[in-house]
Design goal:
Helix content: 25-40%
Number of helices: 4
Oligomer: single chain
Shape: globular
Strand order of the largest sheet: 1-2-4-3
Order of helices and strands: EEEHEHEEEEEHEH
Structural class: alpha+beta
Length: 191
């Protein structure tokens, strides 16, 4: 089983996370309803088992909660992938959400890099600041060793754009972490 458990405690957040790349129950509680909804969608479309609790300094704002969740989820993903032997490695997905269309392409290359091109028409989605989507993706990318490109081709609703981004990430993760061989998918022989 490709699993990981990561805990992280700072003066700003306390996070406990369990991840299974093989699926399983999903239970998420971050204190930010919309973010819970996005992480649930990510886990569902990624075929992931995910148990996550976050106690963050929401009296300040949601930034530390969202970014630190990306850090911990990225660390868990890296641990669960191990030496990355046999994984497909690359994947991409277009996801429509009503008027919005978003695209994700990724590579579990162990070389973190984020390209994020998704302007948000509204600043807030409930208590969630829409600019935090990029912060989450950056933290997740850096800590998982992922090359990630995300683009909102069009859309007028920040909720729809954000949801399409998280779902396209989930669909792409599910495909990229699938075990399709025995060796490392690299001409170098290592990731």
């Amino acid at each position: 089983m490709r699993t990981a458990e990561v805990s992280r405690k700072t003066k700003e957040t306390c996070i406990d996370l369990k991840l299974s790349l093989e699926g399983g129950p999903v239970a998420i509680k971050t204190g930010i309803g919309f973010f819970d909804h996005m992480l649930t969608a990510l886990a569902f479309y990624g075929g992931l088992g995910l148990a996550l609790t976050v106690d963050g300094d929401l009296e300040v704002d949601g930034h530390h909660t969202v970014e630190d969740t990306g850090i911990v989820l990225g660390q868990a993903m890296k641990e669960a992938l191990g030496d990355r032997k046999g994984i497909r490695r690359y994947a991409s997905a277009y996801i429509p959400m009503d008027e919005a269309l978003c695209f994700t392409a990724l590579d579990f290359s162990n070389r973190p890099f984020l390209v994020f091109d998704a302007p948000m028409p509204q600043e807030r989605i409930g208590s969630y600041e829409s600019c935090l989507t990029e912060e989450f993706m950056r933290a997740f990318t850096v800590n998982s060793g992922l090359t990630l490109h995300m683009k909102a081709l069009y859309g007028k609703n920040a909720h729809h754009i954000t949801e399409a981004l998280f779902k396209s990430l989930g669909v792409s993760i599910k495909e990229a972490v699938a075990v399709t061989g025995a060796g490392v998918t690299s001409t170098k022989g290592v990731l």
